[in-house]
């Protein structure tokens, strides 16, 4: 029985639709399958837990996919034309690079993991590209994807047609959920930053049974040297690839490089010495609320405002100690805006919770239902941060 069959069987059983199955010994050694169900012929629960789950192959595929997608985005950002920026139905921007990145990542995952049954939950869909008005854009995206694949010297890829590109984009239509494996992709997180020429990230996470088990963050414009107080230090080399697997720590390597360094969140315990990150766009997170929280904590440094999950990456290597995110009323967070970033930070020793201190639950589909906002910091600062957040939220509520 092959790898895919075993996994499918396990999933079928966990969904209660199969019972006649065997596990290959080789597979048992390389994966952990945890199934808890009732078989059709006996009424006692059947529980099977099989050793460690390294996700090595998945991590290699994710790094390759995110690195290639970053190359495509860099190409577009360099020659960014106004005509490459479109508006989605919610008025948020989308570019040929968002679509191209999504198509590339989806194509690479399918190609690198042919026997792994998975789905992809991704931000973009092909709706606008299938319209008459989208045909020129679709051609441009297809060219970009093919050019990027052709530039990947070590592999020979087929030339994709416009239909292949549409299909690859629409592979991202999964709704996610608590069962099985789902890749979670934000092909460009921080599109507004991307269009401005600032920070953005290609964010790719993997959910297994509703939990994030792996994450890769490609941040093409993030300096390799630490950032802080909006100032760049010594080296001005840019392009970071952060990655993490559950239980294995978080790492950073130069985008396109191979030497990896383990990263840790900063261990500052005095809020006066801490600095904090927040969204660049005031429309995405209340800067007033962050400033009130920072004041209560006694944070002295001004906020570091950068776009995208590059904030999680920067925090994971200790560039700052706190990330505050308080979307305005009515906004629902999406899993692709936090899956990869949150595992990178937690594997670097940090904590990611909602404003009430609850862990983020990625098992509920596309949305993350959080109380009031998302806060991130190290273990030592979390208790005082939670107190300051509670106080600031109460004050805000009583002033309304
Ligand atoms: N109204 C509103 N409130 C809160 N968040 C929103 C809102 N609109 C969008 N978004 C999401 O924010 C994502 C960009 O991440 P950031 O907010 O960290 O970056 S930014 O500094 O604001 O650009 C951005 O991700 P991308 O769409 O992938 O760029 C959105 O998912
Ligand atoms: Mg978007
Ligand atoms: Mg996003
Ligand atoms: Mg996006």
From TrEMBL:
Gene: LOC106766815
Pathways involved: Signal transduction; phosphatidylinositol signaling pathway
GO BP annotations, alphabetical order: inositol phosphate metabolic process; phosphatidylinositol phosphate biosynthetic process; sulfate assimilation
Protein's UniProt name: 3'(2'),5'-bisphosphate nucleotidase
Protein family membership: Belongs to the inositol monophosphatase superfamily.
Organism listed in the record: Vigna radiata var. radiata (Mung bean)
Function of the protein: Converts adenosine 3'-phosphate 5'-phosphosulfate (PAPS) to adenosine 5'-phosphosulfate (APS) and 3'(2')-phosphoadenosine 5'-phosphate (PAP) to AMP.
Ligand binding (Mg(2+)): 123, 186, 188-189, 337
Gene3D superfamilies recorded: 3.40.190.80, Fructose-1,6-Bisphosphatase, subunit A, domain 1
One Pfam assignment: Inositol_P
Matches recorded under InterPro entries: DPNP, Inositol_monoP_metal-BS, Inositol_monoP_superfamily, Inositol_monophosphatase-like, Inositol_monophosphatase_CS
A GO MF label: 3'(2'),5'-bisphosphate nucleotidase activity
Enzymatic class: hydrolase
Reaction catalysed by this enzyme: 3'-phosphoadenylyl sulfate + H2O = adenosine 5'-phosphosulfate + phosphate; adenosine 3',5'-bisphosphate + H2O = AMP + phosphate; 1D-myo-inositol 1,4-bisphosphate + H2O = 1D-myo-inositol 4-phosphate + phosphate; adenosine 2',5'-bisphosphate + H2O = AMP + phosphate
NCBIfam families, alphabetized: bisphos_HAL2 (TIGR01330)
EC numbers: 3.1.3.7
Names of required cofactors: Mg(2+)
UniProt keyword list: Hydrolase, Magnesium, Metal-binding, Multifunctional enzyme
UniProt keyword Hydrolase present: yes
């Amino acid at each position: 029985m092959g790898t895919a069959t075993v996994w499918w069987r396990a999933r079928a059983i966990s969904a209660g639709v199969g019972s006649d199955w065997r596990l290959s010994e080789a597979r048992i050694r390389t994966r952990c399958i945890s199934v808890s169900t009732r078989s059709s012929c006996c009424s006692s629960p059947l529980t099977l837990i099989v050793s460690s789950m390294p996700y090595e192959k998945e991590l290699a595929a994710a790094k390759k996919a995110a690195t290639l997608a970053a190359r495509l985005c860099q190409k577009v950002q360099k020659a960014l034309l106004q005509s490459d920026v479109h508006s989605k139905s919610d008025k948020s921007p989308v570019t040929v690079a968002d679509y191209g990145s999504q198509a590339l990542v989806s194509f690479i995952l399918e190609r690198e993991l042919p026997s792994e049954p998975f789905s992809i939950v991704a931000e973009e869909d092909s709706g606008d590209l299938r319209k008459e008005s989208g045909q020129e854009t679709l051609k441009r995206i297809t060219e970009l994807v093919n050019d990027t694949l052709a530039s990947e010297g070590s592999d020979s890829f087929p030339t994709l047609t416009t239909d292949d590109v549409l299909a690859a984009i629409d592979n991202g239509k999964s709704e996610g959920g608590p069962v099985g494996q789902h890749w979670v992709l934000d092909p460009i997180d921080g599109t507004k930053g991307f269009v401005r020429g600032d920070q953005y990230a290609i964010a790719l996470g993997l959910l297994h049974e509703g939990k994030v088990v792996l994450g890769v963050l490609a941040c093409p414009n993030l300096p390799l040297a630490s950032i802080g107080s909006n100032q760049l230090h010594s080296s001005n080399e840019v392009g970071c690839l952060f990655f993490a697997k559950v239980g294995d720590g978080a790492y950073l390597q130069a985008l396109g490089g191979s030497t990896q360094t383990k990263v840790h969140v900063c261990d500052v315990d005095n809020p006066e010495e801490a600095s904090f990150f927040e969204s660049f766009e005031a429309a995405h997170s209340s800067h007033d609320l962050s400033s009130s929280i920072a004041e209560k904590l006694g944070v002295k440094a001004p906020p570091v405002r950068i776009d995208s999950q590059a904030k999680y990456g920067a925090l994971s290597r200790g560039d700052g100690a706190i990330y505050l995110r308080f979307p305005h009323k009515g906004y629902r967070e999406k899993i692709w805006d936090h899956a990869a970033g949150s595992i990178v930070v937690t594997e670097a020793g940090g904590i990611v919770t909602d404003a009430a201190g609850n862990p983020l639950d990625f098992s509920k589909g596309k949305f993350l239902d959080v109380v009031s906002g998302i806060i991130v910091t190290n273990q030592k600062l979390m208790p005082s941060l939670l107190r300051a957040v509670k106080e600031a939220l109460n004050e805000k509520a009583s002033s309304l």
